Amino acid sequence: MIKKIYQNCLLPVMVVALLVNYTSAQNPIIRNQFTADPSARVFGDRVYVYPSHDILATEGKGRVGWFCMEDYHVFSSSNLSDWTDHGMIVTQNTVPWVRPNSYSMWAPDCIERNGKYYFYFPTAAKDTVTYGRGFTIGVAVADKPEGPFTPEATPIKGVRGIDPNVFLDKDGQAYLYWSAGNIYVAKLKSNMLELDSEVKTLGDLPSKGLKEGPYMFERNGIYYLTYPHVENKTERLEYAIGNNPLGPFKVTGVIMDESESGCWTNHHSVIQFRNQWYLFYHNKDYSPRFDKARSIRADSLSFNADGTIKKVIPTLRGIGVTNPGKEIQIDRYSAISPEGTSTDFIDTTNRFLGWKTVFNKPGAWVQYNTVDFGKTAFKNLLVSAISETGGTLQIRTGSVDGTVVAQVKIPKTSEWKQVKATVLKFPKGVQNLFVLLKDDKQVAVDWIRFE
Ligand code: FUB
Predict the structure, then answer these.
(1) Statement to judge: residues 144 and 87 lie in one domain
(2) Is 272 within the bounds of a domain?
(3) From the CA of 213, how far away is ligand 1's center (Å)?
(4) Domains held by the chain: number
(5) Whether residues 285 and 412 fall in one domain
(6) pTM of the entire structure?
(7) Angstrom distance (rounded) from CA 163 to CA 24
């Protein structure tokens, strides 16, 4: 079945193409399902993300209150703003060796070699005598990044654990990293399906607190072994560096602190795309009270001159340039006034409908960065708003005192209403937008859009 799903509106569903397309330039980047453990990869001129697919367990389907994952989807984008869901690529009960209905399709990875795409996933095997009772790691192979993927008949021999990560070094040697309390590595044969060395435990890492989710990348001859680690209460993203994929590694720093939301896990990947580095990670945006229903995010990452990683502060704005002709979700703001502005879910019975921004003091504002107006002279501004008092909003560029692009009078309304205003001064090029409340009223905004 073919569907097109609009951001902030899972309905109407229209049959239009073989893919599910929707706009999402902000965090979380995937807005129609729970996603976690993002493995981002650059294949050709697109970024592909292979996440876990969290679902909610129910009696008889997974373990209630725990991780529950049945399958994997892959998503891709050419601009980091518009993401396409290519649909399900691997599901538990069509993999010959997987224990049926184990709902344990945890964090995957995917890598390309000689035109083939190798998708690695950890899960429980039905043959516990051969593969043990815990997790083992299997591979599915495709000719294209979005599949179709054909699972191998058996998992990789000699691997017990979760969170596979494959690194292909410049000399053509591939390495498989995974975790099971510690972090392990072994060389892979060039067929990418079998180990080609002894398994090595990476022992130069913190000895206390869970470590998992390894992700290796190389930059300027430095090998970065990155991993979530529980130093205190929940996982934070840390890294160690070395000059060889097998180590030794020197514990070097923190990439991202523990999540303020209290999401116990974090799990990440690092890519360079068009000269910018990015960190993909997860939080629990759509599920504030249950941290096994997660959502993937992305933010920019950068390095110090000595090669150390600058700590990434998670943002709601995320990455990508926003098209003003599409709905701009200002609740995914870049900055917010110290008082008078807050955000909340539009509908707590369906959180995938997204968030609203509530302004309730004169001068309260949000800043939303990197909107590319190009050379188009947009004539009107459309605001989706609701207000019991009515109120006046201004959209400015540059700063909160900057040029007034439009002023819109929101009438008293008990239902969401799209209100139009004339653009007073056409913005050009890439702009940071400010939305502010002029009067002593209360107005909630779902999105704004130029036309
Ligand atoms: O998604 C299940 C597990 O949670 C992953 O395998 C870990 O890395 C953690 O994110």
Answers:
(1) yes
(2) yes
(3) 7
(4) 2
(5) no
(6) 0.94
(7) 27
User: Is residue 246 located within the same domain as residue 124?
Assistant: yes
Is the CB–ligand 1 distance for residue 212 below 6 Å?
yes
Question: Are 218 and 246 a contacting pair, CB within 8 Å?
Answer: no
What SS3 state is found at 55? coil
Of the candidates 37, 163, 258, 327, the residue annotated as catalytic is 37
DSSP conformation class of 259: P
**What is the number of H-type helices and E-type strands within the chain?**
1, 32
Same domain, 157 and 247: yes
CB 223 within 8 A of CB 215: no
Euclidean distance between CA atoms 433 and 404, whole angstroms = 10
pLDDT, one tens digit per residue, over 229-274 is 999 999 999 999 999 999 999 999 999 999 999 999 999 999 999 9
Q: pLDDT for 33-61, tens place per residue?
A: 999 999 999 999 999 999 999 999 999 99
Quote the ligand 1 centre to 108 CA distance (angstroms): 9
> Is 37 a residue of the active site?
yes
Identify whether 198 is a catalytic site residue.
Answer: no
CA of 122 to the centre of ligand 1 (A): 10
205 and 106, same domain (yes or no): yes
Residue 317 in any domain: the answer is no
**Interatomic CA distance for residues 236 and 308, integer angstroms:** 17
Domain that holds residue 37: 21-301
Q: Is residue 105 part of a domain?
A: yes
